[in-house]
Amino acid sequence: MTGILDLALANLVSPVILSFVLGLLAALGRSDLTVPEAAAKGMSIYLLFAIGFKGGVAVAANGLDGTLIATMIAGLVLSAVLPFIAFAMLRVLTSLSRIDAAAVAGHYGSISIVTFVAATSVLEGRGISSEGYMVAVAAVMEAPAILSALWLVSTGGSGRRMDKELMREIMLNGSIVLLVGAFFIGAATGEEGLAAISSFIVAPFTGVLCLFLLDMGLVAGRGLRESRGTLNIGAVAFGILMPIVGSLIGLATGLIVGLSPGGVTLLMVLSASASYIAVPAAMRVALPEANPSVYLTLSLGVTFPFNLTIGIPLYVALSQAVTGG
Question: What's the confidence (pLDDT) of residue 156?
Fold first, then answer.
């Protein structure tokens, strides 16, 4: 327990986390601090490209092997299955409608790429290595959860049913296209490609991430402030319990696949995080009747801060304790 608390404290005083806290407190205090929408969009594009590109380079250096393929298949299955677990928990803990519960569940099968990056930084700071291709696993975990959420709604006799047009909208979602596309560019160009643009995607990365998390803190704070009365105790409890449940499933999966302690940690983080980029965009198109103040506030205002402050240190400690790493 002491180790978890020490790691949590170290994580809390990092520039990345404190930038998020600054934005959160500014929004809760009703400050007029804002990040222009165009700037926030630009930072999002930069981060997705850099993450995907570096992941592709890592796969090029590693080469295709059985563990990589098994891990990607495991990621696909986790992304498809976790929404059903989340949906069942929401039906027990909350009184959300089927559509709102399914929309929320879709967020918890997909992933938060920024939480993934924060966890990677924590591992690097502690000298714990991990499989570089885990970003490829993150990429394949974006879309299946959306399809599961839509299936949950369609089986209830309401909402938009899956069709070719909707599938196209989901698979061509901008964040998915950028992450996967940059991944293939990195895989094709390898270490030489990375060296050519390292001054652009390596050195500035942490600074851009700090500004992006400042904006995320502002968004989360406004969501929490505006959602008073919308979310009850059961919904907030779900936002904390679901990451723990997901992380334990990710832990078991990582052990079965045979990942390193760092890789197991990252699969736990992916299984515990909730999307606030790709899935909200898809839900606006696929389930416009779902309430954004519910699914965005839970994913970004409850689960995201929990994972950054408590979750990641907990997942690192659990992974090390179980794997002996």
Answer: 65
